[in-house]
């Protein structure tokens, strides 16, 4: 099920961008938006405003990567964050016979690695830190995933 919608920013002074145009593309993103919006340690945040060019290893062509989240923490740390299920952050397990599903998972993983390598390099050169947040990260932060 694809889960997306418009997020209503509660604390608009912290949001960098147009707070009426914040779109979440998963229930996890929506939960993180709520967390960032309500957390006093987060001084500012936004969604999909950083666009990083990258060359994808699946087609050797230039693309644009819209990073899920930017945030600035009270301690001065500036993060660019991608939110992904943990299984999408590791290479897919090779089955006994190659299926279309497996080949697609390999392609998606290769595309993600291309994006993340570019994001890490881009971030370091500009004073940001790039992180991938999985369900483990969200759990450690105390982010509650709401259903529906």
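-> sequence recovered:
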């Amino acid at each position: 099920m694809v889960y997306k919608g418009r997020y209503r920013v509660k604390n608009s002074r912290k949001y960098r961008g147009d707070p009426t145009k914040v779109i979440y593309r998963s229930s996890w993103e929506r939960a993180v938006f709520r967390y960032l919006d309500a957390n006093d340690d987060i001084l500012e945040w936004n969604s999909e405003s950083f666009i990083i060019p990258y060359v994808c290893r699946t087609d050797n062509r230039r693309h644009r990567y819209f990073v899920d989240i930017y945030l600035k923490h009270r301690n001065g740390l500036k993060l660019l964050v991608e939110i992904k299920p943990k299984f999408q952050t590791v290479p897919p397990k090779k089955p006994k016979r190659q299926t279309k599903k497996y080949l697609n998972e390999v392609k998606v993983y290769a595309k993600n690695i291309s994006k993340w390598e570019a994001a890490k390099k881009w971030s370091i050169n500009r004073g940001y830190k790039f992180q991938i947040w999985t369900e483990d990260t969200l759990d450690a932060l105390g982010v509650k995933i709401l259903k529906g």
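The two ends are 11 Å apart (CA to CA).
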